[in-house]
Amino acid sequence: MKSQEVDKIWERLVAKVAVMAEGMKDRSPHRADKDGKYDSMPTWWWTSGFWPGLLWILFDMTQEPMFKEKAWKWDAEIENWLHEGELGQLHHDVGFQFLPTAVIKYMLTGDHAGKRRGLAAANYMAGRYNPVGQFIRAWNDGTWDKDNTTGWAIIDCSLNLSLLFWAANETADPRFKHIAISHADTVLQHFIRPDGSVNHIVSFDADTGAFIESLGGQGYGPHSSWSRGQAWAIYGMANTYRYTGEQRFLDAAKRVAHYFIACLPEDGVPYWDFRTPSLKDEPRDSSAGAIAASGLIEIANLLEPSESRLYQTAAERILSALTHRCGTWDLPNCEGILLHATGHKPGNVNVDVSLIYGDYYYVEAMAKLKGWRHRIF
Q1: Is there a domain that residue 374 lies in?
Q2: Domain that holds residue 11
Q3: CATH at residue 141
Q4: Is the pTM of this model over 0.70?
Q5: Phi and psi for 193 in degrees, rounded to 5?
């Protein structure tokens, strides 16, 4: 994408988010309804960090005080669930919740309460680690109507590892890093397949650590290729390499990226799963595209120019497709930035909607094209 095109898109984004910020009030959005209006979820819900994270990026890039004011309170709101919530309301997703709130708040403003909250969340996440199976437990019992998920791990957690790496650097305590690397190695062994496709959920025996099976989760089936899972793996493994310098993680990120790029349809907007029996009439997932694009930019930044071109070009191709095929620029009453996201197709939940994490990663990726350097994931 030429710099003039990036500048034009960014101007539209800033204007769009300014309108969103005024209209969102105290809502914690997850998905938009058929009229384009975002819902409001409890702040223990896993997506609660993405809206304030989007605001923090806009503040960092524009220095407009309104974005900072709207973003400021959210880490304190989410922290309440660490201390006052019922057992089981927070999961591995504390990375998604506290990195784009408490951690970036501390990074940009020096707010020590933000630092404290980020470290408390990292401690909580580290406490979910199973040392025998070498994985971070995904959910608590009762999630997805399952009574026992003690041995379940998911690919999404790859990106939450950044919270542990940040905590290790911030405290000079390598225990956080050791847990993150151990889980990442489990991702290499049990999640990322030889061809670069990815399992969504893997079940282990929580007592022995033995692998039991892979589960379909939000993908079509146990052996399919859920596109958002692919995107989490691209970005998560690239970040793990950035924090560790261990080549095996970069190699894994590249392998998954190659698979993702090869599976993209001609128009550049990924299907929700790359391995359904037929792609005819299957919905797309713009959120998978946005996450993958941001991860591909990370890979490109880790490589020499001669090699990085493949990943940078793919990221820009996806972002251009999302801009022109999914953007809501001509829909002023639509609060979402991107249309055509898919949350959970097998459950027929949030199909062909705007999703706040799709909006977040689209803004994040575009900010990277504009030179944003304050990485939080």
Answers
A1: no
A2: 3-369
A3: 1.50.10.10
A4: yes
A5: -80, 165
